[in-house]
Amino acid sequence: MNGSVQKSHVCSMCQKSYNRRYSLNRHLRTCGNLRQYPCDECEVIKSSEALLKRHKQVHVLRRCCFCDAQFREAASLRRHEEMNATRPNKRHLPPQDLMDLPDDMEPSLRQMHLENWDVIKTYLTENDHQEVYNIRLEESPMILDGKLWHLFYRQDKMFKISVDFGVIFKDRVSKELRYENDCDQTIPFLVKDQADFEKFLETVRNIDWLKLVKWKSSRWMLYFIPNVTFYVSKINHDLR
What we know:
Order of helices and strands: EEHEEHEEHHHEEHEEEHHE
Radius of gyration: 23 Å
Number of helices: 8
Distance between the termini: 72 Å
Number of domains: 3
Oligomer: single chain
Shape: globular
Low-confidence stretches: 88-93
């Protein structure tokens, strides 16, 4: 033993080696005068920050609506949730939404979340005639399929479902932020079976969110959509 440390992290361009991935990643940002963006979780290197951000989604753990199981792939989560949801007595509420906002969230945006947490957080309320399911968004409103199947599998009757959402506006001049949740709901969509619900999901994916926003004035612009609310009105007929 000569006490030397094996350097297992090697630059593919100049063959320099390092004993820590962090040191290699720092070197890669300037090696060959090319901008490179290495992933902190694996050996992948991307040529732009946008491509790296997209790649990092493979490392995100997605949590099941019914239990504490977590998955890296959305398809695996969907299969697990479908299996869970069809078991008897699986009419669970969504998991408690902890205030785990990203560390790098802009301070003014974080403050808006904190001040309006009761209406932004994920929650479910219900009575004999209607369920209100609010989902806090951590990404695009179009990426909701896995969470929305939870709604479908809770139902044993036909239902109508409509969509509303919260909006954070930004003043173009003062940069002030303001939260509003009185945007127009979509026209209720009748769901008689699973095929209808799949059509509803497709409708949600194609919503022009900008057209649904009530602009206060030309000074205010859409800045962030923090939550989407689904209203489920029950109809006294069994699902097909």
